[in-house]
Amino acid sequence: MSDVAAATVDQVPVTSPVAPPNARLAGAERKARAREMMLHGPIVRTLVKLALPTIGVMVAQTAVGIAETYYVGFLGTEVLAGVALVFPIFMLMTTLSNGGLGSGVASAIAHAVGGGRQKDADALVFHAVVLAVIWGAVFMLGVIWGGPALYAALGGRDASLAAALKYSNVLFAGAVVVWIVNMLAAALRGSGNVKVPALVTLIGAAVMIPASPALIFGFGPIPRLGVAGAATAFNIYYLGALIVMLAYMRSGRSGLTLTVSRLEWRLFADILKVGLPTAINAVQTNLCVILVTGAVGLFGTAALAGYGTASRLDYVMIPILFGLSSAVLTMVGINIGAGNPARAHHIAWVAALIGIGITETIGLAAAIAPSVWVGLFTNDPAVLAPGMTYLRIVGLVYGLFGFGFVTSFAAQGAGKVLWPSVAVTARLVVAAGAGWIAVTSFGGTMVTLAVIVAVSFAVYAGFASLVMFRASAWSPKKA
Q: How far is residue 213 from each of residues 84, 222, 244, 351, 439, measured CA to CA in Å?
């Protein structure tokens, strides 16, 4: 990142014509206090303070998804399987906007804040919105146009394919809105402001969870929309979040102000130098899930539905990991920006160990009692069996996934993306490549596939950890 070893004292931001001076001052004071804690405060306490609101955001979003899956389960196995086909594609979009390009936005703004470059930090917000509009349009048009072929290739047939298309077309019609909301949230995280995105999301989730069944099954004057109702609820949720986030970012109270600014390649480069490799990692991560889903689809609709419900536990852990990892990315980025790499390295190790502890605890619980999770969504024995098989095996190594995830974000905060990229590629090759070969060429079963996925987590953690042992990744930057 440019100018990362510069000043250690915040510059007071220039008053924007759209924000009252007292609002700008309050935002600047909050930012200065947050920066001081990240540079000199207790590591664990600061990590927790930064992570908990983001975890709340992601848990709320995941709760919405789990509730939706629960409701959709009443529409039948074919519809549940159809939603399972769409889910990895939607998660690709959300991980790209939150953890892919969103990480680039957070990292660039953290470095700007750490270096005292408030004007650049504000301009980066507008650049993030421009990228969000472009990528949101790409997803909307691409999925609506290519959905039939994609979901058929993943194993969608007849009723399950029809359900997938009905759900997907409505869901991805709101892609631009999803991108803007997630990129604005990433910008706020990069500046150390995590409470407002959390509050917006929690309120939205509290409204959406009861609203979703009303749209799916009908209620009073609301017509029964079926699986399309679940997608409509998502879009309403994100539209409300967009309105609130835009008003907040325009006000200047956040410490960052969204205003139209001149587009500069150097600011796009600050975002993309971390965001693009991380986005490629996100594509590979979700491609891995998509290809494994396709391999499971070869076992039939019931297996596909079972795997889809079981693997949602992966996405329950991601909110926790993402909250922790966003905090470590911001703390590492600001310390690197302020010329304090030794503290940045220490922060990375503390966060990685916390990540292992949390995810391994969840994984062991799932491996010991997989029916507790899978049974939330279905009572069909043909669906329960493959889901429980997956959790009994993969749950044992969730800690490795957690370690790799957190260390990858720490590396992004330091501006080092090589080994995280290698780690994600290796996981893709093992899980998807070896998984497909095992199933199609050697008659592999669900047990075989689950073992291969577990091995892929070990490979992922091994490569991701290498950045932690490379002195060059944590050495002081030369002026």
A: 18, 11, 24, 38, 37
